[in-house]
Specification:
Number of strands: 0
Structural class: mainly alpha
Number of helices: 8
Largest sheet: none
Radius of gyration: 26 Å
Number of domains: 1
Shape: globular
Distance between the termini: 80 Å
Length: about 230
Amino acid sequence: MMARTVPALVAPTARAMPWHLFLAAAGLGLLAVALPAASTISLRDVDLVALLRLAATCGAVGVAFLLDDPATRSLATLPTPRWTRQLVRATLATAAAGTWWAALLTITVAGAQDGAADTLSLPGLTLEAATLAAVALALAATRLRTSTDGAAGVVAAPAVLVLALAATMLPARWALFVKPGDPRWPAAHDRWALLLAAALAALLWATRDRQRGPARPALRRRPSPVRQSPRTHT
């Protein structure tokens, strides 16, 4: 039954998702990468990495809105489990963000000059972008567990920005954003991988159906005894 339910949810779910918010944020990230690539300015690998990280943060902010669902309250009575509906949305969001990120990498490599793209670690940067997007989805799904209006992005998107900013301020020993060629790059991306695993686990937890306690049996009221009126003796 689930094998038939999931494909049937894809088209209506895709139509109901707020793509305009994702496209707005993703568009900013695209401009951050495409404008320098189209210019004659020669950028170093450090500059290209900084632009891709900025674009990845913009994309994660947009992804945070893709779980928004104003019909959450009315959908709660449907037979389709909550986790199925949420994971369909998350999968569509991941597919869109992945396609967008692949385009960014293509533009960056095509526009790089003087061999700057040769020293880029595209898998490492993709891991960073995937982690930011997963964190955004996990925060949005967690917000939806307590939300009655289905609005998650208004909380998750600012949280992503705050977390990304905080990540730039970590001590050197725990740094996440390191420059290409830095000896700390492998260790930093081991931490990114752990964060990705934690974000995915949090996303799966947040999409679970809410546990409902066992129904309490209805209390049976005992019939009140019928009072007999005292007989009057004549």
